[in-house]
Design a protein that fits this description.
By secondary structure, this protein is of the alpha/beta class. It folds into two domains: 2-123, Rossmann fold (3-Layer(aba) Sandwich); 129-220, Orthogonal Bundle (Arc Repressor Mutant, subunit A), CATH 1.10.10. Helix content is 45%, strand content 22%. The longest helix has 21 residues, at 104-124. The structure holds calcium ion (CA). Calcium ion (CA) binds at residues 8-9, 51, 53-54.
């Protein structure tokens, strides 16, 4: 399990990191919002511990960003203890909120609870059939339909489409897509762009539902 701590107080980061490592979590940290955003994208943590008052990018904005791109649980830790701040953070998608100073024990218990419930969600996601917006993909029958019309996809295009449909809104890096589809590291990342281009053409007017995330990769927005 990988934890990303986004917090500008070094001493807090250090004590959390120490406690998390004792629980055998892999720990990554960022000392400002921008670094936090970059690490979230590149490291794909299983859970995020997020401070609100951060330099560069505010915690609230980061919270919204993370939740619009993934279902990664977020626990907010903040000195802001008013009811309004808590409600706002939860409305932005935070899964839990702890007011500073808090007990690290309690934070760990809450983290475990969050990680447990995401694990349950994941076991449900070994789906073979996806229906989303105009798309329909049946892995067992190897069928892909667009507005009920059968579309012929090559095996690689089919795999890309399946990945995108399995987690709409999640950003897939070009490296992830490439590794998943070719299974090894040395294929040029440019190939994936070529496949996405062809796939978009086959999707016709729905092609632009596959969004380019500049400098990162692709995602599906339905
Ligand atoms: Ca702070």
């Amino acid at each position: 399990m990988k934890v990303l701590i986004i917090e500008d107080e070094k001493s807090v980061v250090e004590s959390l990191a120490l406690a998390f490592k004792k629980e055998n979590y892999e720990v990554i940290s960022a000392l400002d919002g921008r670094e936090g955003k970059e690490k979230f994208i590149s490291e794909k943590p299983d859970i995020v511990i997020l401070d609100l008052m951060l330099p560069e990018i505010r915690g609230e904005e980061l919270c919204r960003f993370i939740k619009s791109h993934s279902d990664t649980p977020i626990i907010v830790i903040s000195a802001k203890d008013s009811e309004i701040d808590k409600v706002l953070a939860l409305e932005l998608g935070a899964d839990d909120y702890l007011v500073k100073p808090f007990s690290i024990r309690e934070l760990i218990i809450r983290m475990k609870k969050r990680l447990e419930s995401t694990k349950k969600d994941k076991t449900d996601s070994h789906k073979k059939l996806y229906e989303l917006g105009p798309f329909y993909l049946d892995e067992e029958k190897y069928e892909f339909k667009l507005e009920n019309k059968l579309i012929e996809l090559t095996p690689k295009e089919f795999s890309i489409m399946k990945m995108l449909l399995s987690k709409p809104k999640r950003v897939w890096t070009r490296r992830e897509l490439t590794n998943q589809i070719w299974g090894y590291d040395y294929v040029s990342l440019k190939s994936i762009d070529v496949y996405i281009k062809r796939l978009r053409e086959k999707l016709g007017r729905y092609g632009d539902l596959i969004k380019t995330v500049r400098g990162v990769g692709y995602k599906l927005e339905v």
